[in-house]
Amino acid sequence: MAQEDVFKKIVSHCKEYGFVFPSSEIYDGLGAVYDYGQNGVELKNNIKQYWWKAMTMLHENIVGIDSAIFMHPTIWKASGHVDAFNDPLIDNRDSKKRYRADVLIEDQIAKYDEKIQKEVEKARKRFGDSFDEAKYMETSERVKETKEKRDNLHARYAEAMQGPDLEALKQIILDEEIVDPISGTKNWTDVRQFNLMFATEMGASADASMKVYLRPETAQGIFVNYLNVQKTGRMKIPFGIAQIGKAFRNEIVARQFIFRMREFEQMEMQFFVAPGTELEWFPKWKETRMKWHQALGFGAENYRFHDHEKLAHYANAATDIEFKMPFGFKEVEGIHSRTNFDLSQHEKFSGKSIKYFDPQTNESYTPYVIETSIGVDRMFLSIMCHAFEEEKLENGETRTVLKLPAALAPVKCAVMPLVKKDGLPEKAREIIDQLKFHFNCQYDEKDSIGKRYRRQDAIGTPYCVTVDHDTLTDGKVTLRFRDTMEQERVNISDLNSIIEDKVSIASLLKKLQ
Ligand code: GAP
Prior knowledge:
It is built from 18 helices and 23 strands. By secondary structure, it is α+β, with helices and mostly antiparallel strands. It starts with a helix and ends with a helix. The model has no long low-confidence stretch (mean pLDDT 95). This is Glycine--tRNA ligase. InterPro entries: aa-tRNA-synt_IIb, aa-tRNA-synth_II, aa-tRNA-synth_II/BPL/LPL, Anticodon-bd, Anticodon-bd_dom_sf, Gly-tRNA_synthase/POLG2, Gly_tRNA_ligase_bac, GlyRS-like_core.
């Protein structure tokens, strides 16, 4: 099945099973805004717990905060967001649709990549086991020609984005003959800059009101509080501050479901280090964060680093952790060495000294910062994409199953009476009443047992417990495992110890040691 179709299925599965709903759906929705349903919120909370605990419990020198969404507007002047948090936009005069000029060009680069990949796959089939991909890439005229076009385009694009040079971006779109996917025409306007921050007014009367912004990242709340935390927590450098919270960006192009949203959630950690040591810490954080991702067991081949060649003026190293989504490798997390840019800017704009006093050297300095920044919603999407499977069974049927890591699954255990009579529902409730203090359980008595198993598979429940007539006499139940569909007869008294450890966040955290 084409990856596009797989993705469509994942999106509709998210809606059908209470994971993600379009916001304001009965009013025809609101672009790039989504609500999480009863299962989605559980999965999302588990992701956040996994991150939060990995940061604050596994590192003695990292603590958390929860800063307000509204902040003094000068913060965004100091951070550069008022002047430079822009995307280059372009309109098509025929369809009246708006696009990000950089995204149109990146899509064009991806088309060249796809073309090369198709050639490689065709050759692989033709040559079989003797196929040497590297040699083929070097010798195939067709591949060489496409690669040259691709590399030239990439070089022009990278140069145009410095600045950025808006005319150069438009010229690339014209030269590449990029057409609007809706109108099919090349009738483009000029490229213009568009600021992504949402603004609103704070204050009761028009005279006294102040323009404030919905924060476009949570990081600035950490920067402006770093000295409060350092002093009240008696933190010594190096130390980190973690935060999870909403961020808002007026994205021009809303695409790929919850991949690019206008209201989303970030999990950010700023790690404050002594000047000159930041490039020692940067690779350590790269490794720590990759380990966190890979502990989920999705396979190392589905992740890669994308080191930034061209750096923002305030950064001296930056990389993205990319995950293989059905629409290609995409950024899920950014790791940036941000120098002392943000803290210095806040010193300058606030006029207050926010230097760190080092008791060992008796010196004061502005710390340097390594930032790890991951989107909760993108993480959620990557997990759903990897977990979703339509599995062909031996009996010819297909089952839809979410192979979620047990610790992240919304429901850990479903308890089901085989029939709705003879005291079985009461026994099932009794079991839930024991287990519910330890993890999330669900009671289900409707429909055949096969249908109930399928319903639980579809939301990723790792364990199902079935109560039958024998249970009443032997105190045993059938425990069914989601991934293998194997069943085992176990004592009711053993259920908690069998399940609890495997579904706890601690089971994931232990893999990080
Ligand atoms: N403080 C640094 C910062 O905000 P970023 O690369 O702009 O860096 C970090 O964002 C992460 O936030 C991204 O890797 C992505 O996971 C998530 N993110 C950014 N924009 C998003 C959007 N519009 N929708 C969903 N997630 C987004």
